[in-house]
Amino acid sequence: MDYTNKQIAFARDKSTQLSSLTFLEDRTSHTTPNSPKKINKTIEIVSLPSLLMSSTVPLNIGIDIDEQLICSILSRAYQQVSITVINEQIDLDILAARRPDLVFSGVKYFNFENRKLWLNDYLDQHGIAYVASNKAALDGEFDKGNAKILIKKAGLATADYFTTEPDEHLTEASIPIAFPLFVKPVASGDSKGIDAKSIVNNFADFKSKVADIWDKQNSRSLVETYLSGREYSVGIFEDSSSGKLTAMPIEIIAPKNKNGQRILDFDIKRFDNEKVIAVKNATIREQLSELAKSAFLAINGKAFGRIDIKLDHRRIPHFVEANLMPGLRTGYFYISCHINLGLTYEQMILRIAKNGLA
Predict the structure, then answer these.
(1) What is the pairing mode between strands 102-105 and 129-130?
(2) Residues 313, 196: Cα–Cα separation, whole Å
(3) Domains and CATH numbers, the chain
(4) CA 125 to CA 328: how far, in whole Å?
(5) Lowest-confidence range among 131-145, 170-184, 207-221, 261-275?
(6) I need a labelling partner for 345 at 20 to 30 A (CA). Which of 149, 218, 284, 338 fits?
(7) Cα–Cα distance between 102 and 12 in angstroms, integer?
(8) How confident is the model at residue 51 (pLDDT cuts 50, 70, 90)?
(9) Is 119 buried (19+), middle (13-18) or exposed (0-12) by CB count in 10 A?
(10) Beta bridge mates, 102
(11) What is d(CA 99, CA 41) in angstroms, rounded to the nearest whole number?
């Protein structure tokens, strides 16, 4: 079984995936021996103990990864590769004292005695390389309203919008943009809170959807002009040495819902019911690539990420949202690498590590 098929099998079988992590211990629990044929670098894959106890992804995980699989891949190329579980602050301090050449992790922050400690900022303070963006960039990306502010400041196309919560916009006249509108949580991933009722055509539907997001997602709503065109995601690789950005566009086609609309909602993503294809139209491909690279720079992305884009009714691409810590299983980022660059899963992971070490 090759790495890609193995990864797909892990993603489909949660029980297998969790049992594969049971070898983790309080400290470094798996280390490969030195080999003269491997690159003389030390890489630590940082994980959380909570991953051993739950099949759900904790809020402080930005990149969903299979630590064991990635350790196996990196061990083929690098002399010292280990998985380190962080239980408390002292574990992180010990890691910093070891000064690995690279930390490969999807953890955004730790909760130490009711205090958040952001991993990548901590690593910056200790001069240790890592694979993704820093806290400042992640803050701008996670709040969709903040991301759109940065995009507008850069002069890039994005739908008109405002944010709201129940009882904030009390009349139809108080709404600053025209129907139809698209309503989603202002800070959420994986299309949570998005469904057939996200497209609203009147004030009553607007109030209902905003209340639903407030109640179920505990979030304010981002309300924007509905973009009726096709939907895309563009993977981005940044060369750490040269700063050159490589854009990898893909088209995502959701099945039509009961209203005849294609909405990439939570259930479609969860059950993999969407279709993902290459972007073959040269003009659209170029427009998507340029917008995605400009957006990545505008939100201060680093190393790699994903930019989501939709066309309006005139086929003009508009920025929708960004993900600077995209999942590294078999989701959109990997698919964009495979379709555009022909990378295997193993090659993608090795490229991310090599870029981080640069």
Answers:
(1) parallel
(2) 19
(3) 3-132 (no CATH), 139-157+227-324 (3.30.470.20), 161-225 (3.30.1490)
(4) 26
(5) 131-145
(6) 284
(7) 29
(8) low
(9) buried
(10) 43, 129
(11) 11
